[in-house]
Amino acid sequence: MIGDFMATVNGWIENFGLLSEAWRVGIVVFALVFGTAAVAYVASHIISALERKFSQTRNLWDDAVLHAARKPVVAFVWLQGVYWAAEVAHDYSSAEIFKANDAVLQLGFVFVLVWAILRLIKAGEGILTSPLKMRQPMDYTTVNAVSKMSRAVVIITAVLISMQSLGYSISGVLAFGGVGGIAVGFAAKDLLANFFGGFIIHLDRPFKVGDWVRSPDRNIEGTVEHIGWRLTTIRTFDKRPLYVPNATFTTIAVENPSRMTNRRIYETIGIRYADVGQMGSIVEDIKAMLREHEDIDSEQTLIVNFLAFNASSLDIMVYTFTKTTQWVLFHEVKQDVLLKISDIIEGYDSEVAFPTRTLHVPESVRLSGSQSDESSEVDKGSSSGKTVEKSRHRQTTGDAEESGDSE
After folding, report:
1. Topology of domain 260-347, per CATH?
2. pLDDT interval class at 407 (50, 70, 90)
3. How does DSSP assign 324-389, residue by residue?
4. CATH topology assigned to domain 205-258
5. What is the pTM of this model?
6. What are the structural domain ranges in the chain?
7. Of 23-27, 190-194, 297-301, which range is least confident?
């Protein structure tokens, strides 16, 4: 069919005698390009209309296929139309560039096909992980890993097919890759270690995007933003990005607090030694309060016991778990629990203990101190008496002298 069309076009160019051959070729090339644009426009609108129609159905995959195929179909129409125009020009031109028409068509077809497949993979990833489109959406990290692997396979296959189309032997390329792979492996061992570390993360799934992770071995803590094949991006709590090579996670311990089932309240509360008589009642009331608290998970371990005789307090251990795992709400529940414990202690006219010291002075030291005080008072009285006597003596002497002067 294509051969008959090209023969008809060439016959018109050769037999039409009104214009020169160059003008006739130019008109045919322009007509082919203009017709290609028209067909591409019509094809795009037809697929868009089909998308709107199929979007009303419950099936999501037909929408994904049509959306993935719309732009590649338009590109294919342009590829085929431009190829026909180039073939017409090649029949009447000796330019070297037109000799690559067949190779460009083959490479273009591979590119369009790969483009459509990659768009379909991306659309499928969005469907499988969307809670709005799936009743039970799949794990984003797993779907993202499979999507990346699928894209890599498609691209590598497309490259090999393209090289085969250009005349290169695939077996030779693979042999070269096998020999060169050893050298590349030694030169890029860290890169390969990170790649396989990323593969292990996707396989074992110790964490996923959005999880809060921390490591007791390294200064790593924050929310996972992206898991790549070489790096994992973690947003720390001070909003700074932290880029961790994937190979690091194969050698360190990683905690995932996002997967905790409960949060723990573990407090030691001390009361005064003077309130030892109310210890049993206080412990029982605290335990009853925790069992009845709506935010405390009574199915988990709950311990309230007199723990120890401390230096200045009688210690009570409170060990329980909240139902919530949210950080902010947990602290609100903990505050409420501690305030209620304080009310229970005050209800028995008891007090929460604080560090105090009592100094015991022996009785003999007290008596010695009292006697010393009395002696000092006596001494002070004697000295005062002497001062009075001296004053009186001076006064008498002065009076006598005044009498002598008057005589």
Report:
1. Alpha-Beta Plaits (3.30.70)
2. very low
3. ---HHHHHHHHHHHHHHHHHHHHHTT--B------PPPPHHHHHHHHHHHHHHHHHHHHHHHHHHH
4. SH3 type barrels. (2.30.30)
5. 0.54
6. 2-187, 205-258, 260-347
7. 23-27
